[in-house]
From TrEMBL:
Signal peptide: none
Pfam families: SDA1_HEAT (PF08158)
Gene assigned in the entry: LOC115730281
Protein's UniProt name: Protein SDA1
Stretches with biased composition (Acidic residues): 518-542, 562-583, 593-612
Family according to the record: Belongs to the SDA1 family.
GO cellular component: nucleolus
Amino acid sequence: MSSTRLSLEALSASGRSSEKLSLPSLQSKMKCDPEGYETELGLVHSQFSSSLELFEQQAALSFASISGVAADPTVAKDLGDRAAFLAHVAPFYPKQLAEFPSRLAEFLRSSARSLPSGLRCTVTQALILLVNRKMVDIRDTLALFMELQTLGDRALRKLAFSHVVHSIRKMNQKHKNEATNRSLQNVLFSLLQQEEETKAKQSLIMLCELHRRKVWFDDRTANAICTACFHPASRIMIAALSFLLDYEKIEDDSDSDASSSDDELSRQSPHVILSKGAVYKAHHQGTSASKKKKKAKLQRAIRSMKKQQRLSSDNSSSNYYSPLNHLKDAQGFAEKLFSRLQTCNERFEVKMMMLKVVARTVGLHHLILLNFYPFIQKYVQPHQRDVTTLLAAAVQACHDMVPPDAVEPLFKQIVNQFVHDRSRPEAIAVGINVVREICLRMPLLMNEDLLQDLVLYKKSHEKAVSAAARSLISLFRELCPSMLVKKDRGRPSDPTARPMAYGEISVASAVPGVELLQNDDDDEDDDNIGSDEDIDNEDSDDGGSIGIDNDNSVSIGSENATSDDEETHASTDDNECDDESLDGDSVLGEDSSSGEDFDEVSGDEVDEDEDAKADCGDDNVEVHDEVNTISETNSDEGKTGSRVKISATRKRKFTDLDGQINAAETSLRALKKLAETKLSQPPSDSADGILSNEDFHRIKQLKAKKEAKVALTKHGLLGKGGEKKSAFKVPSSDQLGIKRVDPAKLEAHVKQKLSKEERLALVKAGREERGKYQARAAIKQKKTGGSSNKQKEHRKVMPMAAKRAKVQRSRQDKKRKQGRFGKQFRGKKAWK
């Protein structure tokens, strides 16, 4: 009986014409009319059962064969064809083929190793088809598919692996079934803990793939992968370590979740705000060459801002992820892995992987592993293999929670071995860079004498060494400028800055960036106050005026002359005496700028006023002294309209009490008005400290503007008037722990000077897209299509009347120009 043909007796028994039907054609007809072909289904099912029994008998007879192949290959082919046929029609006959999936799975489970490769793949594909059509649950077949991956058949392993990954992804595509996921994870976790290397390796590969695709992106999977680092088999340990170290370099596939792709897109499109003035200058002001340079500078500034924002977003905890983040017992994991590192006999590359994972865990979770630093100290030598990787691990393991005494021997070892006069320039550059990175995390390790010695390398003729030394100087300009000599301090943003003591922490008391919002509100209020005062000053006379500038200080004097002494500016927040004097003097309702005199004031009232002023302190006395002197000058010279600058050191005179009271009342009234304006001003945020969505959006915009201003100033687009900020910003401890230290950045990468041949090659490469240079006249001569209108105008024969009119117009224009410039002599001078 053939495997692709049915017997004629079977077809005639069902009452149909005796035509030969193949299994594919019968399959298509059975799908169209399931009830009309039940007899054929029973026939094919009985043939499958007989073929299965015959194959098992032949396998039992030939058990001594090494390959396990049956004597008759046609039996295996018949069995595979009928298994695939029944798998395709099983959804249409659920009652008749209810036991077929379990029988097929049991057949694979019992005799998978002895099956031929072709039959094994065919039966596996039939079982996968049943699982996809939900005839079999994935929880019942997961262990079977994981076992099939360990048989050594490459095609079968790839088929089973892709099926499991696809099934679990499809199951969690719309919503996650925690119960089903937990049962599947338990199967894989149990296989991972087995000592058999092949099963543990396949389960680890499956877990890593599902975790990388963010299907099982939970703590249980991350901890299971980290636990694989302690597997007795070295290959399993190496695979787990490689996944943990390379996870940050793995990019999401194109078929990952939509949410993750949206996050990536939002992360790769930073928000940049530029001033309109800088853009206008780059495109419209200056010559073509200067505009080209400005455009290039603007593009560099934009690229630098985008790079900074991208780095900050990558280093932020919201977008960063690593399986080491979700360790339940990070301290125990680091200690256990470090103890295995100390006792293992693996090759050097494996030890370096273990060392990097331990350092990454210590830096990420801010652990204290004191024995780790003396262990690294033994290998800190310039001639050590992969010394930059070792130093990067040492830097990664340093954080502010580690006692400085534990890291100080390692720190001194790095300085003594790498930074000395007989060392190579590459080693010196690496040593200074490592010192800078360690001091960035633990500034207390540096002392003043050592810093002065390292700073002297800024005069080195090697560019890598001098650059490393200058980077160290820029770091300590922000951390502790007092440790540098005066000429190296520059202009730090905070001259009194100092590193925090061991165990000291800074607690955030407000929303990050809220000071930008407050400063922006203060600037707007200052502008509003200045405009209000300008309106009030319009009603005053020319004798004197009172204005409030943007610094919220009071200036007294005329419109054209002001006092040079800054002590005349008195703020309402200095002391409480100002408020008392304001309340006491507010009853004087006359305007000080008018030309009329006040009524006479009794001596008692003057004495009381003087006593109140004396109680307010020395600063207030100086203010009233200056007020009195200025008022005397204005009262004496106000009739003539002259403005005289009076020194603030003149003694007080009591000859003109009316002028003194007039000026004092004016200054105090201005101070009171300023105080009332400040008190009536609503705060930028509410009393409970809750900011609205508009406030957060405004903070984001102000941050972007500030970064744009710093970048434009750095590239010279704002000129000398731009606000100069520090180009280096010290990151926080959490950001440093999250950031991965790249060993390549510790090395010295100096761009070598190109030779003449290389420069010529670059020049010629830039000329390829550009045509050959030709003069403009030559281009005009080679022009095709006739002469231009301008050329035709020159060739026209002009009539005599038109020529005379043209000459007359030129003479008139010349006379008009001479009359406009006057009789100034513009020729050569006759004398010397």
